Structures
1.
Amino acid sequence: MRRRPRLLGLSWLPAVVTAVGVLVLWTVVAASDWIQPAYLAPSPLEVWDAFVRANTYHPVGGGVDRVVRGEENYFLWEHLVVSLRRIAIGLVLAILVGVPLGLLMGTVESVRRVAGPYLDFLRSIPPLAYMGFLVAWFGIYDTSKIWLLFLAAFPPIALATINGVRGVREDQVNAVLSLGASRRQAVTSVVLPATTPDILSGIRVAVGFAWTTVVAAELVNGLPGIGGLAYLSGTQNKIALSVACILVIGLTAIALDFVIRLIERTLAPWRGKA
Amino acid sequence: MTATSVRTHSGAVRVAGVEHVFGSRGAEVPALDRIDLTIEPGELVTLAGPSGCGKTTLLRLVAGFMRPTSGNISVGDREVRGPGAERGVVFQQPTLYPWLDVRGNVALGPKLRGVAKAERTARADTYLDLVGLTDFADRRPYELSGGMQQRTQIARVLANDPDIVLMDEPFGALDALTRERLQGELLSLWRATGKTVLFITHGVDEAVLLGTRVLVMSPRPGRIVLDEPAPFAAASADVDPKDLRASPEFAELTRRVREAIT
Ligand SMILES: Nc1ncnc2c1ncn2[C@@H]1O[C@H](COP(=O)(O)OP(=O)(O)OP(=O)(O)O)[C@@H](O)[C@H]1O
Ligand SMILES: [Mg+2]
């Protein structure tokens, strides 16, 4: 239940004050000489500058008279899109496998007993542990990263689906069977829609998990990729750019979460009401 | 509805030596104790009894949601092994689907059978009109009051045209006026279609007025302690229920049913 703010427009005031406060504090710290060497503490303006440079054609600088495209030949937003694309592919595969598997495991007791322990096992492995193995199998390019994201995203989706199926009210299934539904129809016309809210929560968890994983996975041959860029710029002492990447990564995570919540609200508006 | 009278009826409901015990060894709850009952096609059987005596249990066994601990249940010459479209169920608590609007809920049965959209929508609207919910066809179930949800559930079962209708206190959540109207609708529908109905109710008056046969169950474990024919449901449609209620026969049967319950 969200309460409508009484004085319209004042509800976001604390947030703005806090943000301004953080920026001021950051500027003061960056301008002071508390942190040495000074390049380790770029000011907000320097970070903004690095962000803009990374999204435009700009001179290399340092007296060299050459213009380059963004960073590492890609604009920053292109790095971001590449990472998002990896997530999207891994996630779609995870949904395609996780949801049917979850439905099957949720509805058929024997399948759940057999496959359950393996799923629990998979879930308990930090995805990055697979990385070396996956590189050996699928090489250092995108295939191994997409496999990694798939392995990160599919257990939470499958588990949420199973939970959802088991939470479906028995009489909702009985009712549709009494209307003449076959077992299959009962799954597609009642169990699946009744489970949609849980599946979406599972996807939300999976996306958060996959985003953390992809950024980390791009430490190895991650260019183009926003995680790769964040890492590389740090190792090259381009701290302002690295900070810009970190901010972009965080804001993207929040945006992704927001989008999924929006999808949840349109696809399952009854959530919590029935 | 003409289709119903043409179609061969599923046959009598037979409950033979049925006992039902809930729970496992150590914590057993005997709910039904040797129920023998035959409901002939076209009968409108009302079942009354104290709360917790096993009425819902009996209905769920006939619906095929569970198997009796012992004894067996059949419809026609086929044993009941699970739910089926010929036995429509109006649940004590409405079980509507929140991802469908009210019309979609009512049209679900025909949809599962592959009835074309225009036809099943028309069918749904007919029954929504019958239960007085035409204006709410496009709403979601959770936007309806409890009584309206119950009426939607009734419409959903009727739109699926089952031979046998199992109703678990369907009018319990309704105001007196709506209840009386729906009682009337149930009777005229039953007269027009010849459906077999098992109707569970708390109300002695309702049991006597609606049933061609009135059953009363004892406290748990439920046994049938009264089984009497009742003439009022079969009375012609233009007789006012008020006049029926005023008759000495009505008062007499009501008294006997009330006595059996307590
Ligand atoms: N799933 C169950 N597990 C265990 N016990 C149950 C279960 N369902 C019902 N019972 C028990 O069986 C008995 C009969 O229950 P039932 O629901 O059939 O009563 P009822 O006659 O329909 O009552 P009411 O008029 O209040 O609806 C009750 O004592 C109840 O506690
Ligand atoms: Mg009951």
2.
Amino acid sequence: MADLVKITVDGKEIEVEAGTPVIDAAIDNGTYIPHFCHHSRLEPVGLCRMCLVELETPRGMVLTPSCTLPASEGQVIHTKTPVVDKAQEGVLEFLLINHPLDCPVCDKGGECPLQDQTLGYGPGESRFVEEKRHFEKPVPVSDLVLLDRERCILCSRCVRFAEEVAGDPLIEITARGNQAHIETFPDEPFSSYFSGNTVQICPVGALTATAYRFRARPWDLRKVESTCPHCTAGEAIEIDASQNQVLRFNGIDADATNQGWLSDKCRFGFEFIGSAERLTVPLVRDGDGFRESTWAEALDLVAERLGAVIESRGGEAVAGFGGARGTNEDAYAFSKFMRAVVGSNHIDARMDDAPAAELLAAVQPRATIGDLDTASTILLWGPDLKEEAGTLYLRVRQAVQKRGAKLVVVHPRRTGLDDRATWKFTYRPGTGFGTLEAFASGAGDFAEARKALDEGPVVAVVGLTGMTEDPTLATAVAAFAAGLPDAKILPVARRSNTFGALDMGCAPGLLPGRVSFGDADAVAAFEAAFGAVPDHAGLDTSGMLEGLANGDLAAAVLVGADPVRDVPDGALARRALEAADFVVALDLFLTDSSSLADVVLPAEGFAEKEGTFTNLEGRVSKVNRIVAGPGQTQPDWSILEEIARRMGRPMGFDSAETVAEEIATVAPAYADLRWRDVERKKPEGVLLDGGWYTPKAPAGPDVDADMVLHLARTLYDDGVAMRQSLSLHHLAPGGVAYLHPGDAERLGVTEGDQVVVVGSAGEATLPVRFDPSLPAGVVYVPFNQAGVPSLGAGAAVEVRSA
Amino acid sequence: MSWSPETVARAERIMQRYPERRSAVMPLLYLSMLEDGYLTDDGMREVAEWTGLTPVQVKSVASFYGMFKLRYTGKYLVSVCTSISCMLRGADDVMAAVEDEAGVPHGETDDDGVIAVEHVECIGACGGAPAVQVNYELIEGITPEQARDLVRWLREEQPDKIVADDLQERFGGTRSFDWAIRETEGAVGPFPAFGPYGTVAEEDRS
Ligand code: SF4
Ligand code: FES
Ligand code: FES
């Protein structure tokens, strides 16, 4: 940490870290200095001159911008002198010369720094009588962001964000002087996954979001702080709603997690909440279709049918899928429902798309996101973070770009971080174990990177690189990292509250509070709390699907789970649900899976219920309600409680908070953690500690085949939340087979030709695109795209010209 | 890659001088102008490839400087200095004469694509004000009438080579005492007439 220095601001002495921009020092200590271009998460540029202050120097007072002035010992600053006042008035008069003052029709009007500072510090009148400049408006700078150039005050926040933070320098100030304006290159839009952040930080209404433009006036919005429901980083967000409609998400600057930023999927992926296709009444199977029913009828039916299965085949004939798309409280209720009410350990929230549950929930030593800021080397052997955990991607990028941390990326193809990687290693899916062995021994090309890992602190970001990879490879990588002298592990998985669900025991080998079935005392405590805990071995997602398909299992409970879309072998999931005697689904939509159910119960979704969320570092934050769920929707915990009561084994919940109370009482890692404690620590939340799992290296076989499949997720896909968010849905890449040009030549195909990819569980005909970053003999297919049949998780595939 | 092999070879030599790739952006922009006559979108894309910048970053640089032309600027670019010394010596009348004779205002090119007109800031010829350049070749002490003759002559003769000494003789007036241009080669259009300083021109000579 840098030295502390004393500076005096308006007669008040304050102590700050040396080098802090004086503007931040003053604002943090209660003296506001107006500004436009300055943003505490961006490099200072001193462009707008709004932050001028007077600084005492041996030659008298000088007027200087406080954003480019680093704090140093003994500085004396005055922010409210007649000279400063005059300077501020002058700056504002200049800025308004070209500004159209179209505030009544501007999205920003009412929450606009230019408007507010004109009121607070402006001259009150203008001497400018000439004609203002005009531009064509609005022009799209990306699919999601529009630009009204005449409103722009050329602060370059958007430009600096794009370059410094997002790493997509596709938006720039061009020309000079009076002609200067913001622009993107022809045919090269600002198609960054993070473009929406510029809308939030633009200090005027020059950049607006298509999803929000003209939808509301800021003073009509109700606001609540919450946690982003899309990825596992647990970004702090503000939800804005009006007239019972969610209209906008904005990022909140939580230092520990997102530092104010959101990916566009997180920012604009709220539209599904208000979708007209939301389920609003219970549905009961009627021949090939459904009929609407009352809650009483539907719940009775579920209790009766589930009861009958349990009666005849025992609780272990029931499979539970899901839990990751809701709150911790919902997941806890589901976990307890399966264990205590149904009597089954077959429960999994990972949906075949995550490494081992113990690794995710309880690995030690576990890194925090903040550890990336001090790591000397970062090892990334997992998903392409740009596609699967946007704000984590930004954090790694920043560690390398701003601080010079070394970055080692190991992945089957190019990733978003390759341009910043110190070392990048590419390998064929299926050869991960061999690659790890070579890497660990520091053989050949790996030597330097391997050596860098011996010097700490190291953060190893570990997860699945793709869905055809053996999930135990992540464990092996974590085991390797755990063996390094000074390394911590940050496990990643993709789906929203996966970590919360696992912490609540939505995994075959875990009980709530990160309790392993191997821990006899803790299991005994649950037996007391739950009445009973089944002792049979639980199945994971693919085990349950196979069990249902072959008749070993008889019924399924889906809680916000869409196995047909979520798992790599969608055909198996379909067979499983069709074969089951009884399926009940708690869902927001009639999905490919819930439409195969016997009873579909309409659930409340995000922003409609209260609870908590646990992110990938084990940080618990609050999820809050701002709108009412449509129609007769109910929260998951309440639906499960109602079924439990009808089955004669009530769980004892009558509000989400009573579920939270029980978690605080029985779940060890969450002991005594109550909502008010979490609220008090907002926006960061409470970081839990409760790791006990030291990964051990399992030896896995490598796959040897002519062609192997890399099946991985993209930020935008055809998942139900995306499909129902109309601003985003068209951004999914769609069905494509990426081939190395050499392989394409061998197959006699070129870009745009169709190939048939025959996977382990299905085949698809897809157009070819070249990707020279792939190793030879690998075909990359983005997972879960509209109209693409599922291929299965097997690495070996066959590819032929169609 | 759309550049000619010669241009590519020149670009390669330029790149060697810059340990930081992006620093080569300005000389490469000159090259791109030499190649196409002005900076086309494709030309800027090409420069972006070479320098590792994005095209819009290249455009941001290119559009900042007046002498990087983002539009076609005629076979002959007539630049009239309107800064203070020239202005005091009648540059406004020279400018008006040039615009009138060429039939296009500042910043435009005539319909035939032969003559473009612009007014520029001080071109370092204050001693011989008012000054005009054709394809960056200088004429000093020019009168409005001579400026008209100049435009007419350019349009009718369309000379292949523009040489300052020659222009000065035909259309110039009083020269500044330190007139030092002794170029016999002169401009070899299209723009710019010169290679990047200390890079292309020099090396091409060797
Ligand atoms: S568009 Fe907004 S953020 Fe970008 S330079 Fe203009 S005022 Fe600043
Ligand atoms: S905030 Fe300091 S110059 Fe803009
Ligand atoms: S003012 Fe015209 S050359 Fe200097």
3.
Amino acid sequence: MSAAIRVENVSKRYRLGVINRRMLYQDLQSRWARWRGQEDPHSKVGEKLRGNGENFWALDGINFEIRAGEVIGLIGGNGAGKSTLLKILSRITSPTKGRVCLKGSVASLLEVGTGFHPELTGHENIFLNGTILGMRQSEIRRKFDQIVDFAEVEQFIDTPVKRYSSGMYVRLAFAVAAHLSPEILIIDEVLAVGDARFQEKCLGKMESIAGEGRTILFVSHNMGAIRALCSRGILLREGRVVMDGSIDETITAYIGDNFASASSYEAKERPASPHFERITATQEPAAQGTFSIGQPLVVTFETNPCGKKDLTVGLVIRNSQGVWVQHSSDEFAAAKDPLATVSRCIIPPHALGPGKYHLDALLAKRNEEAYEHLVNALSFEIAFDGAMAARTHAADWKGACGPGLLLWE
Amino acid sequence: MNDTATPDAPEDLSQWSKVITPQRGWLDVRWRDLWQYRDLIYMFVRRDFVGTYKQTVLGPLWFFLQPLFTTIVFTIVFGRIAKISTDSVPPPLFYLSGVVMWQYFADCLQKTSTTFTANADIFGKVYFPRLVLPISTVITNLITFAIQFSLFLGVLVFFKLQGAPVFPNFRMAILPLLLVMMAALGLGVGCLVSALTTRYRDLSVAVGFGVQLWMYGSTVVYPLSEIAPEWRWLLVLNPMVPIIEAFRFAFLGSGVVEIWQLAMGAGVCVLVLLGGIITFNHVEKTFSDTI
Ligand SMILES: Nc1ncnc2c1ncn2[C@@H]1O[C@H](COP(=O)(O)OP(=O)(O)OP(=O)(O)O)[C@@H](O)[C@H]1O
Ligand SMILES: [Mg+2]
């Protein structure tokens, strides 16, 4: 397949600080003062030393090439420059240096519902939004029924969108975008909208778009979605490409990037609703951050129920691939005191394979909304120790659970 | 990685359908893109028209009331109190003709002048040729003009039936040309102002005031014949003067416009339009960084 996108040495400089916020009269005053040889009344102290403001390189020498039909996941931490790169590719802003070559029609979706007008009906907004995104009228007319179907808003299609619930609004907006059919599709973190069922539907739709052989460049912080969709990953850090390879390698590198071990959590603020006071991971003999795969690991949750009863503590343990290795709750305890404020979870040896993990904690009442949901409450690493560490290499074992979980005879 | 040090090496770029580079010339206006996005112009016209129509309680009635009340006020203030001549035309008809024409121009200017500030959120999220917006504004205003113009025609017929000395004539055919001139002038100045307001926010406050002043510099509330002949050339530098005079000459049969004045006005309009579009185009490519 031939190349669809080629990015050559692209850099983008932003000027930091307050720009373009000056008033015309201030500019005239400054000019008048300078002309008479006086000091500029509007110059800030020390401004002369720094010249014309500070520059900041959001992208710094980006190079890559994408072949037609590839689905690429672009990942990186906050401020890595992902959105900036997408904006350059979609011509919203121009690069400061470098060159981008594209082959085929491009549509980009950096936000759902751009240009929606609250007074117009769903019907009118489908046409407006579709046209803004680059569709022709005839194309929208052809796909209109599919779009309405996908959004599940048939009954409200002639109602002004200002009367829509925010979920319906987002569904409609995404439905329009999902029916774009460019050769190159650029998508920035827009899947994190709607309810879980709709998100799944969107992912499915994206998979089928990818299956049609379109080139897709996809940004998300949801590693599960990235892994499901993409075949190749590009990792950005501080405006540079630090990794360009298979999606698994890239995600692992990214999670390694962000990994700061924390084997305890302490509440910082104490709301009046039920919340976690403290969460700790401990092991005998005492360890910090890195635990042995061969010993039980105890996670202790201390909660403050604030007068509520029958609370449930849940946990999710995710590995460096973003896979949920464990999802459990204290409802599985053999016996449970409804007034207990401490729950203890014992993770047996080899329940988790060697690698890095994040633990999310959830405090809820059965079938009701969660009181507290802590993402990445704990982060820790599991490693071999003792005799096994000397004999094998952690990277040799690729299962999500440890190799010693199975019983061999 | 020094292999890209010569970006303009004789590499064949024709296999790519789009090449994005930092530089873009001042005169590099993407006309072809604009043509490709013609559907969007239509959609924006629809949006703006339906949007305003639905938002105001009075709906389209508002479009009648505005020129009507302005005309009544002008008739009282400039006709009755200041007693400014109206070239033997019934004062309401005289002022209404000026108001309807002026309103189209003023709307074009004022609405296009907020293009960047009013659409900052869209501009940061999606690409389309930015000129689509001011162009669609000018077209939307044409609908408003049509409504107000029909009001003017109604009043004209009413006065004619009463036997007023007004003489509509074949020169009415020039109306489309006058509209194009006004659209060009309004669009040009509006684009210029909207480009400048991205740099100087306080300019947007001055626009309303400037339009007001400009109206008194145009022959809306007085006829050109009231101006001493040796000063007329100065006033005629303002294209709105020959435009309004020509309109009155065609529909009411009064006015002192000459062909060369209209031609000069058209020249000024074209220059202003080009200047506006070029400035707009220049600001457009860096604007989204500065929101
Ligand atoms: N218009 C702007 N002016 C100045 N700095 C900007 C501008 N837009 C972005 N930046 C800076 O550029 C850097 C990269 O921003 P960008 O939006 O590309 O990050 P990102 O990778 O998309 O992050 P996130 O995951 O949070 O969306 C950030 O440090 C941001 O502050
Ligand atoms: Mg972003």
